[in-house]
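Checklist before submission:
- one chain only
- standard amino acids only
- sequence pasted in full

Submission:
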Amino acid sequence: MGNSLTMNSNFVPITLFLSAALTLSPLANAQESDPDIDKALKQAEEQSKRMGIKMPDVKAQLAEVEQDEAKEKAALQKQLEAPGPVALPDWTPKVLQFTADGPARKKLVYDEVKIVVTGTSPLTPAELADAWDAARTEKMNRTRNNNSSNETKSVMLELTLRDMDQKVRLEATRAPEEKITHVTVSSPLPKPDEE
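Returned file contents:
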């Protein structure tokens, strides 16, 4: 019973702390003080003092997270803008009957810079993915997802070269009324070192 009381009494300030942290998180970028958040933090701090628990400095932690995110974003932007050749890995399988929209380019996709080539093919998504599957060697791992939504067919096939930890991804989609498949081939660049 004593352990259960201790756990329950620790639960309240931890819950208040987490609640305040989650509420503060979206506002960290605003750099403005919110009276409700300040009140919740003060209540959590008072409750933790009564219970003899040291509450972490939420604002300092959020500032540190924001600083880390800014460093990562700057490193990704630097990688995106860096000069040099832009090409998919030389082991990337060919996309059959592919017409590219243009040359390979760097693109920031979520939290990584990728080499991306887009275009079209008259073949179906399944036929394109089957051709990539056939080009796979014993040194490659494969992940494949076949999807259909409202008769729109799409396939995502990712090949990973084990000894180099490189990936290439084929994404192919065709709506039921179309006679072409829209294709994206991409490969992530290694994560940049943050300075």
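Reviewer check: The radius of gyration is 25 Å.
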